[in-house]
Amino acid sequence: MNAYYETRAGHRGGPSGAVTSEWLAQAEAALVNPPSSLPRSSPSNGSPLFSVIEEFNLWRSKPELAEAVAAIKALTAVIQRSEATTMMGLEKELHNASEALKAWDETSISLSAGCDLFMRYVTRTSALEYEDIRAGKARLIERGERFGEISLKARKTIAMLGQEFVRDGSTILTHGFSRVVLSILKLAAANKKHFSVICTEGRPDSTGVEMAKEMVAIGVPVTLIIDSAVAYTMQSVDMLLMGADGVVESGGIINMIGTYQAAMVARSMNKPVYVAAESYKFARMYPLDQKDMSPSPRHVDFHVSLPAPVQVECSARDYTPPQFLTLLFTDLGVLTPSAVSDELIQLYV
Amino acid sequence: MPGLDVRIELAAGDEGEGAMDSRRGPRFVIDPKVRQVGFVTPGSESENPNPNSSAVPMPVNAGANSSPNANADSPSPVFITPRLPDPPARTTPLPVPSPPPRKQPSVEIPLQGSYNPADSVLGNSPALSPASNGRYTGVPSSEGPDLSPSASRMSSGIEILSLREDHADSPSASRFSTGGEFSLFKQQQQQHQQAPPPVTRVYASSLPPQPPAQILPPTVDKEEPSKPLKERTTKAERRAKQEADREAKRAARESGGKVVEGEVGPSGGSGKSSKAQVQKKDPSSEKRSPAVEKAPEKEKKKEVPAPRMQFDDEHRVAKAKKRSLIEQTETKNRVELFRHLPQFVHGTQLPSLEAKFFHDDVMHPHPAVYQVGLQYLTGDISGGNARCVAMLLAFKKLIQDYSTPKEKTLVRDLTARVNSNVSFLTTCRPLSISMGNAIKFLKTRIANLQISLSESDAKSRLIFEIDRFIQYKIDFADKEITKHAVTKIKDGDVLLTYASSCVVEMIILCAFELGRKFRVVIVDSRPKLEGKGLLRRLLGRGISCTYTHINAVSYIMQEVTKVFLGASSILSNGTVYSRVGSAAVAMVANAFHVPVMVCCETYKFHERVQLDSICFNELGDPDALVKVPGKKDPSELEGWSQNSHLQLLNLTYDATPADYVSMIITELGMVPPTSVPVILREYRKEPIV
C-alpha cells in the first residue's frame, strides 16, 4: 500500500480535487527519507527536490491531467526555477529531479516513462551546447512546454482515432477506469453512434463504477458487471476497450488487475481487444511473466473478517502479453503490438 | 443496487442479440480500417459515405504510392492533370478519423487537421521512418492539388481522374477503389504510351480507350492528334520514344526517392509545369559523363544476389573442383533433400592441405588464414564468435603483411586477396552468417578507403577498424547482453541451456557472481556433446548443474523456469538459426509456457528470410553419428557407406520460428523477435560500427 495509490484514488473519485494537508504530508514524508540514489553533493539539492514533488502533486490534482503530463509540467518548472549557472549544472539538476520523481513512486510506470521521455526529448537538443545559459534555459523551457502540450493533445488524437472503431449497435466491454477510453467513448457518443457499454466493477477500488457513472452522464446505456462475470458476458460483447498503465517493449500492456483475464477470454472467443494508451506510457520494460514486475500491492477489502492464516493476493496490476491484444490506439497512430517496440527502439536506442 | 440487478438480468436476456453478434464476430477481428491510419486517403474517405463499408480506400493509395516506382520509366502519369475548373466539394480531404460527413455540422471535431506528425510526443525522434511522416496529414483545404503533403496530393489526383471518369460513363467513383483495377488502368496506360509521347500529352494518350476522347478537357484535346492507338511507329519515332524514355528514367533516378513528390504530383497540377520540370532536369543529366550512365547498370547487377553454390549442380561442382586448393571426395549416400549442400569425406583434405602449407603463390592463402582454415577443418575452433574472431585476426595479419604489388591499387588488389582467402576458408568449412557479415564489413571498409591514403596509413586504418569491430561488436556486445540478461535471473530460477553458447555461459557466470541463487540444466545432444565443456566449466565455479540429453527435454522442462539459448544468426523474420536441436528445445519450452530467451549480438543479424532449415544449412560428418564414444564393440552401422539404402544425415543448424521465442537479448536491449527488422533497418543504414 503506498502513497501513490492513495493519492490517486483520492483524485479520481474523492470529493476533493484540491491539495489537502494529507498531500503535503505525503510529499514531506517522501522527502524525509529520500532515495539513496540521490547525490547530495550539491548544496541546492534540497529545495528543488521538494519543489518538484510538490509541483508534481499540484499539477496532478487537476482532474484532466495524467501523471506523466504532471511530471512533465513539474520538470519544466524545475528548469524555470533552476539557479544553475551552466548547462551541465542544469541538466544535472533536471536529472536529479526526475530521479526523485521516479523514486517517489517506483510502481508507477507512466510516471517513470514520462520522466524518461521528457529527459530524452529535452536534452537531446543542441540546447545543451548553448554558450549562454539563459538562451539554453529558455529553449529547454520552450521544449518542455511544447512537450507538455503535445502530451495533452495526445488524448484527443487517440479519441479521434479510436472512435472510428466504435460502430453503431456494438457493445463494448471496458475494464477499470481510463480517461483515454472515456474520451474515445465520449467522442463516439457525440458523433451520434449508438452503442452500449458493459463496465466491470473493477475491484478492489471499484474504478468501473466510476466509468459507469461517466457513461450515464454522456447518455450511453451501461451495464455494470462484477469482475468474475467477464466470461459470462463475453458472448454479447463486440469489442474490448481498455486503457493501460504502461505499454512495454514486447507490445504487451501493464494494467489494472483483471485485464489479463479479460483479454484472455476475449481472445478465446475471437473478440478484438483494443488498448488506448498515450505514447508517453511506452516504457522500456520487458516483463516475461506476471512475477517479472515490481509488485504494486493494494489493500483488498473482502468485507468479512478473515482468519489470520489466510493470505491475500493483493497485486494491483497484471501484465497482458501482446498475443492477446489486437491493436493499440496511440497518438502515433493505430499500432499493432509489435510496432511498439519499433517506436521504442527509434526513440531510445 | 436493485437497478443494477435489473440491468444484469437484461444483459442475460440479450442472448438472441448475443448470438447475432457472435455470428458477426470474425468481421471485427480482422479490421480493415487499421490501414487507414498509416496513409491518408482523405478524399476517398469522404467519398465513401458509409464509414463502415469494407471498400477500403487504402489499396488505391497503395497503388498510387508504388506506381511511380513501378513504372519509373514513364514519368508521365495520370497525376499530371489539368486542374478541373470546379473541383466538387467532396474532394475536400478530411483527416482520416473524421466523423461521417452527414453529422459534421453538429459535431465539434476536436483538433481537425491540427495534428501533425511533428507534433506527436515522439515526433522529434530523429529516426522517424519516412513512412510515419505521411501518417496523418489532414489539412482541410478546398483545392485538392494545393495540399502540401505528397500523399494527399496524390490521392486527390486520383480522385480528379476518377471524377472525370464519372463524367464519361458514370460508373461510381469507387471504380478505382480496388488495387486490381487501378493496376489494370496502369497497364493500359503503359500500353498507350507506345505512341511517341511529348510529356504534356501523356495524360491524354494514356487514358483508357473506353472513355471516348470527347471527355478530355479541350486544352489537352487540341494538342493531341487523334490517332488509332495501335498505330505503327516509324523507326525514327521509336528511337525518339526510346530517347524520351531513357531521359525520363534518368530524371526519375536523379530525383531519387523524391520521385513521388517531384514527378507525380507537381504542385500546380498542370501539365506545363511538369514539362518545365522535366526539361529543367535534362541539362543537368546531360552534363553527367557517360560513366554515370553506366553506373546504374552496375548497381542493377549488384542487386542480383550471387547464386549460392548448389552442390547438386554437377557442372558447377566439377568446375569448382578444378579451382579448389583442396582435394576432397564427396561422401556417398547423401540424403536426397540435402544434395544441394556440400559434403565431403571428413579428414581426406587434411594431408593435401598440410602438404601445401609452404606453397608459394600470390593467390595462395596467407599462412595465418591457412592456419585458421585448418583449425576450422579439424574442428579446433568452433562457435560463432570464436570462428569470427579467429578469421578477423587472421585477416589482420594478412593486412599487416600485405604490400601492394606494382601497377596495382591497394583497394582492388587487397579486395581480391581477401576474396581468395575467404574462398579458401569456405572450402575448409562453410562460412557462418556472422562471418559473412564480418567479411562484408571488412570489404566495405577496404572499398571506402580514400585513394589519397598512403599504403601504411591505409593498412593501419584497416587494422584499427578490425580491432574496433572485434571490440565493439563482439566483446562489448557480449558484456552488454550479459548486463541485460542478468536482470531476468531471479533467486530460485532453474535455467535451461542447450549445447554450449559462450554468451549464455557469461550470463550464468555473471549471475552467479552477483550471488543469485539458481540452478542450471544443461541439455546436450550427440554427436558433438558440446554441453560437456560448459558443464565442466560451470561445475568448476561451483554452480549446481543438471546434465541431460535432449531426449529427456520434455521431462526436465517441468521444473525449468527460463530457457537461455545462443544463436548462430537471427534472420529478419525473427527466425533463430542455431545449433541443431535448439528448435526442439524452444518448442518444448513453449509448450510448457517457459519463456525462451535468445542471446545474440546484432552483428549476427541477417536480412534474409528463411522458413526452414533445409535450403541453407551445413552438413556435418555422417561418420560422427556412427561412432559412439566409449562403445567398445564395433557399431551396427559399421560399413554403412556400402549400403546404398542407408543415408546418414548430420545437420549442424536448425531454424526456430519466431513464435517460440519470447525475447531476443541483444546489446541494444531486450526486444521481441518481431523487432529484428527494425534493428536491421536502423543500424545497417550506416555501415557496421
From TrEMBL, chain A:
Keywords: Cytoplasm, Initiation factor, Protein biosynthesis
GO cellular component, one term: cytosol
One Gene Ontology MF term: translation initiation factor activity
InterPro entries from the UniProt entry: eIF2B_alpha/beta/delta, elF-2B_alpha_N, IF-2B-related, IF_2B-like_C, NagB/RpiA_transferase-like
Pfam families attached to this UniProt entry: IF-2B (PF01008)
The keyword Cytoplasm is annotated on this UniProt entry: yes
Protein location: Cytoplasm, Cytosol
Subunit structure: Component of the translation initiation factor 2B (eIF2B) complex which is a heterodecamer of two sets of five different subunits: alpha, beta, gamma, delta and epsilon. Subunits alpha, beta and delta comprise a regulatory subcomplex and subunits epsilon and gamma comprise a catalytic subcomplex. Within the complex, the hexameric regulatory complex resides at the center, with the two heterodimeric catalytic subcomplexes bound on opposite sides.
Homology family: Belongs to the eIF-2B alpha/beta/delta subunits family.
Identification of the protein by name: Translation initiation factor eIF2B subunit alpha
Organism: Adiantum capillus-veneris
From TrEMBL, chain B:
GO cellular component: cytosol
InterPro entries found in the cross-reference section: IF-2B-related, IF_2B-like_C, NagB/RpiA_transferase-like
SUPFAM superfamilies to which the protein is assigned, alphabetical: NagB/RpiA/CoA transferase-like (SSF100950)
UniProt GO molecular function: translation initiation factor activity
Keywords for this protein: Cytoplasm, Initiation factor, Protein biosynthesis
Gene3D superfamilies linked: Translation initiation factor eif-2b, domain 2
Coiled-coil annotated spans: none
The family this protein is said to belong to: Belongs to the eIF-2B alpha/beta/delta subunits family.
Name by which UniProt lists this protein: Translation initiation factor eIF2B subunit delta
Organism of provenance: Adiantum capillus-veneris
